[in-house]
Amino acid sequence: MGYHTYPVERADALEDPGRYRYCSREELLTMLDPTDDDRVADLGSGTGFYADDVAPFVDTLYAVDVQQAMHDRYREKGTPDAVEFITAEVSSLPFDDDHLDGAYSTMTHHEYAAPVNGTDADADAGDGALAELARVLRPGARLVTVDWSADGSGESGPPLAERYDLDEATAQLEAAGFEIETASDRPETIAIVATR
C-alpha cells in the first residue's frame, strides 16, 4: 500500500455496519469460498471489520496492513484466535512462494495497485504488488477484489481520481498472471474474483 492510506484518526468509521451495503459478509465469503484449513490474507485489514467475518472459516487469517496503528486498534477491540498480524506493504509480503490459499481486499485495491496517473516508479510499485500476490498465492488460489469504482458517484470513499474502473482493474490483474473468474460493475463498487 502506500499511495493512499486510510487516516488512523478516522478508524472508528471502519467499524460502521453500513459498509455491508458495498460488500456483505455473505458476498465476501461466497466469492472467497474458504475452507477451514486455508491460510488467507486480508489486504489492508484496518481495524479487522471483514477479518472478523472471515477468520471463523479459515485456519489462519493474516491481517495485512501497512499501518501498525491499525493493528493496534484491531487488538484493542479483540481478535479471533485465527488472526495473525502482518505489518507490510502488499508489494513486500513476508510469505514463501505459494503460501496462501486465498486473499481478499475490500476497498483497498486502489491503495496498492499502480496509480492511473502516477509516475513510472509508482506504476512499478503497483505492478510489483500484484506480482507479489501472484507469487505468494498457490496455483488455483482465489484473489477477491472489491473496491470503489472510478465510475461511481464519488459521494463515499476516496476521490474518483484514485479509483480504477472495472476494465482497468481486471487488466491489472490479468497482466500479473491472474485469470478472471467473475467481474462485475456495481453502482459504487467493482467486484472481481481472480485465480492464480
TrEMBL record:
Keywords: Methyltransferase, S-adenosyl-L-methionine, Transferase
Gene3D superfamilies: Vaccinia Virus protein VP39
Residues covered by the Methyltransferase type domain: 42-144
Pfam families found in the cross-reference section: Methyltransf_11 (PF08241)
Gene Ontology molecular function, alphabetical: S-adenosylmethionine-dependent methyltransferase activity
GO BP field: methylation
Entry annotated with the keyword Methyltransferase: yes
Name of this chain's protein: Methyltransferase domain-containing protein
